[in-house]
Amino acid sequence: MAGRRSVAAARDTRVAILRAAADMASIDGLDGLTVGRLASELGMSKAGVIGHFGSKTELQLATIEYAADVFRAEVWTPAEHLEPGLPRLLAICDAWMAYAGKPAFPGGCFFAAASFEYDSKTGPVHDAIAERVQRWHERLSADVATAIEAGELPTDASADRIAHSLWALAASVTPNRHLHRDTDAADHVKTSMRILLGAR
């Protein structure tokens, strides 16, 4: 019993560290993550924090995976049971903007910020971000292609281009809200997404 409690406690501590790391990285970037700041915020020792990961790179990679899990739970999971094509695309856009509008992280969209931070860098952190963004692009493209084949979107539409446009619109929420103090940025983008997809 004690062994199970200790494993559960370690798991809970790791999740708490990753939640704090994702919040911090959404504001200061993944390169801005420091073990000292996390330890101070969580009331832990530096050894206690890094002991769950082994290195700063592993902490960054685990933070990316945690943020991807949050995104998946809040954006993809509510829509995945729907019919592929336009119905699921519209549900995705609604859930995506609900996620962006809260926002899920204090600095806004984690992956938009991480993409801007690492787009010209190399290494495992760049690769992990690129892989997850590309996976999402492929998911969007697949549903757009299904919508085109079903006649829900124009036959001459480009699935790849529409998926890129949806991502670009989503990425604009955080700067519009933070730089321009547009508290309705997510709602504006949701409307633009629906116009792009031929719905209101």
From TrEMBL:
Start and end residues of each HTH tetR-type domain: 11-71
One annotated GO molecular function is: DNA binding
Q: Which SUPFAM superfamilies match?
A: Homeodomain-like, Tetracyclin repressor-like, C-terminal domain
Identify the Pfam families for this entry: TetR_C_13, TetR_N
Q: Give start and end residues of each DNA-binding region.
A: 34-53
Q: Which UniProt keywords apply?
A: DNA-binding, Transcription, Transcription regulation
Signal sequence span per UniProt? Answer: none
Alphabetical list of InterPro entries matching this protein: Homeodomain-like_sf, HTH_TetR, Tet_transcr_reg_TetR-rel_C_sf, TetR_C
State whether keyword Signal applies.
no
Q: What is this protein called?
A: TetR/AcrR family transcriptional regulator
Tell me the organism: Solicola gregarius
